[in-house]
Amino acid sequence: xxxxxxPAPYDALLLLSFGGPEGPDDVVPFLENVTRGRGIPRxxxxxxxxxYFLFGGxxxxxxxxxxxxxxLRKDFAEHGLDLPVYWGNRNWAPYxxxxxxxxxxxxxxxxxxxxxxxxASYSGCRQYRENLADALAALAAEGLEAPQVDKLRHYFxxxxxxxxxxxxxxxxxxxxxxxxxxGAHIAFTTHSIPTAAADTSGxxxxxxxxxxxxxxxxxxxxxxxxxxxxxxxxxxIAHPWQLVYQSRSGAPHIPWLEPDICDHLETLHTQxxxxxxxxxxxxxxxxxxxKYDLDTEATAKAAELGLPVTRSATVGADxxxxxxxxxLLLERAAAERDRAPKRCxxxxxxxxxxxxxxxxxxxxTPRPAAAGADWxxxxxxx
Length: 382
Fold this sequence. Notes:
Layout: E1 12-17, H1 27-34, H2 42-48, H3 50-53, H4 61-78, E2 85-89, H5 96-105, E3 110-115, H6 122-141, E4 148-151, H7 159-175, H8 178-181, E5 185-191, H9 195-199, H10 214-235, E6 241-246, H11 261-270, E7 276-279, H12 288-305, E8 309-311, H13 319-336
Parallel strand pairs: 1-2, 1-3, 3-4, 5-6, 5-7, 7-8
Helix pairs in contact: 1-2, 4-13, 5-6, 7-10, 7-13, 11-12
């Protein structure tokens, strides 16, 4: 077997995601899980849950994770990779701790983890690592021998993640009215986060030139530039574009990344822009933030303005993404065996780090976080 095709030392892959409700009765308990420790009243959670109730109380994220799980297993089997793939969530069934417990009982001792978040940030990386630490501590408290878990690197610029998004933007441009297509703007969207969290995301050397936005903004900008250039090569048109944000939450007095997509659409309309493609590059799949904030709210705002818009597809269970996950797994496995693996990355930032350094994407309140340079066991690290 070629050196780059050996999964050792890993004996399993864990797909780690956010989770979501799968019926009306799940919505408030799910939101209680998400907001645990913040003291938000149940009545307020019912108000927040209205987005879910518009879709029958069902978030699409779990179904999309099942599709990705199937795609990963299919890809692994087709390439002779005999490695089981498990799935666990942070906030809803199947819960991470339950899945890790099953993995331990199945004899899994060295686990590679793929988080369904491609970029550096507290909520997109370190919080997943904190949840892993909590789950490992829970297993240790039960008397189980906790496995070693390694989180795979950020894949925002891996070709298997980016190329499907390029195709999605091209398809969305083709859906616009022909007389508006050439002048269309591309609004690359991602989840807004507090500016304080953005500014401290990733390593200092990964930040934007002016330091604002940290690695979170720098990584999104780099991906957007790759997509715009790929579209230009395909169509001959260099479409104007901007990185914008969506899904803001939290207290109004706390600064979050801006502009919001709906405000951006209003600005473009006043500038006489003929059409807009909304490209959600910050999301792996079409979960609730995409379905509501873009397909419902932003699309309604565009209709109100009389502005033609289309929304490009997320990566989802695209076979190229499944192949990218296999590549990331084998790449990390080779590195753990002290080999020098080939690392694929588009854009100017290069491949991300394997091991999150101390101080990367810091938490508001220090907590143990597994799979990083500051982790040495189920009760260590901060």
